[in-house]
């Protein structure tokens, strides 16, 4: 068992996305998923790194054609258990680095909402992105999620008093960029790192969005909001989540790309 399997076997990922503060990321991602397939007749959707199916199963139950590829067998079994057999979904055990079982140009929308969290070298990141581009139709959308560096420095290194532990482990560069290895589970990036990856694949960036913005910084406050106040928080978040001066401080971002025609 590797570090990723060990982590997700013990984690309730659905609970993270259904808490009030966690639902900000989910609601924001779904907003841009729907924008990406608007106007496409019966779109073919691929999610690579589908996890337990929070997105894939939701879309399949809405009637969309979905292919859900997941690396961790436990996650895939949880995903399958949510299905009643009427959904147009194909769950597949597979790796983002090798989608050779899928044909070129087959999907209107390809989503990588988890794989880039766990790829630690530029070569692997580009390999996953190139596979996603390959299987997407020309002019189709590719949505790629990332975990961001600065939120971790603020919330974990300082907020949870982990500075000495992180420094002793040599996990910070002099520029305060977190170093990651598989045992840390998550790979952390900055906006310029994402831009450098995009520059090497045949895509055009449409948007870079802060999917949770300030929500994780104020998680206890948000989880205690009544529904009316939370609705207003979402209005504020949607009004600011595309502001590039704020994106880098979000815990998660969504890179919205269009495959070159």
Structure description:
41% of the residues lie in helices and 20% in strands. It is of the alpha/beta class and 261 residues long. It has one domain: Vaccinia Virus protein VP39 (Rossmann fold, 3-Layer(aba) Sandwich). Strands 1, 2, 3, 4, 5, 6, 7 and 8 form an 8-stranded mixed sheet that branches. It starts with a helix and ends with a strand.
List the helices and strands and how they pair.
Blueprint: H1 3-9, H2 13-18, H3 20-37, E1 44-48, H4 56-61, E2 65-70, H5 73-81, E3 89-93, E4 107-112, H6 122-135, E5 136-148, H7 149-158, H8 163-168, E6 188-189, H9 191-198, E7 203-210, H10 219-223, H11 227-240, H12 244-247, E8 252-259
Parallel strand pairs: 1-2, 1-4, 2-3, 4-5, 5-6
Antiparallel strand pairs: 5-8, 7-8
Rounded mean pLDDT is: 93
Largest beta-sheet characterization: 8 strands, mixed
Summing up helix and strand content along with how strands pair, one would put the structural category as: alpha/beta
User: Rg from C-alpha positions?
Assistant: 18 Å
Q: Can you count the beta strands?
A: 8
